[in-house]
Structure of Ribosomal RNA small subunit methyltransferase I:
Amino acid sequence: MTGTLVLAGTPIGDVKDAPPRLVEELAGADLIAAEDTRRLKRLTQALDVQPTGRVVSYFEGNEAARTPELVEALLAGSRVLLVTDAGMPSVSDPGYRLVAAAVEKDVRVTAVPGPSAVLTALALSGLPVDRFCFEGFLPRKAGERLSRLREVARERRTLVYFEAPHRLDDTLAAMAEVLGADRRAAVCRELTKTYEEVRRGGLGELAAWAAEGVRGEITVVVEGAPEKGTEEVDAAELVRRVRVREEAGERRKEAIAAVAAEAGLPKREVFDAVVAAKNAGA
């Protein structure tokens, strides 16, 4: 018989949030694959549990090379426990590659559910949670980050992101530029820890706050695009609407803002369409 792959959710902050079954799995697994073996040791000490199985590292740098070894152990009948530094494996953490390989070999895969930064931040944000999408980390390069944000500019569902504290101000500024400075959002910092903080406001306001420096683990929740303006409006039509307003006496800046509001689009998108038309001689 083949073994079982167990994906174990671990506390995102307060170790007391660990479910009892996590302790059982840590004690009984034949093999534990940990994103950081040092953090695993601190976790087991805090939970007062002594693993009896072999412990190996399983992180981004060795994930591809170690997966076949873990699959081999599963095929030999071992119970393999996968733990990452915080939260659920595979969710912006190592795990997907191993799960896919195990499924391909018809190995049973199960999970120990645990705390989730995504769901905790959503619940605390004060924003709609009936429909949402998780976007993980945005690209580090500014151009790629803006491009990714433009892809979701009209997304109606609430958006959830992870971000590093030293990039938070740039990310929020980019969000304000693409999604609109007034788009509601919440920055959730150090969830379940001693200095937990949830900062709510418009993206522009939050960007100004983050410019002063922010520390800790960060989850950002952003309101989806408003229902108004869900119809598709192409660039040519946006330019036409701006010109109509300009001909009526409005300044270009005011015309762009008005057209963006009518279409439910970020002002930057309308501005870019106008500039592109001008450069093309249209």
Q: What stands out?
A: The first strand starts at residue 4 and ends at 8. The mean pLDDT is 93.
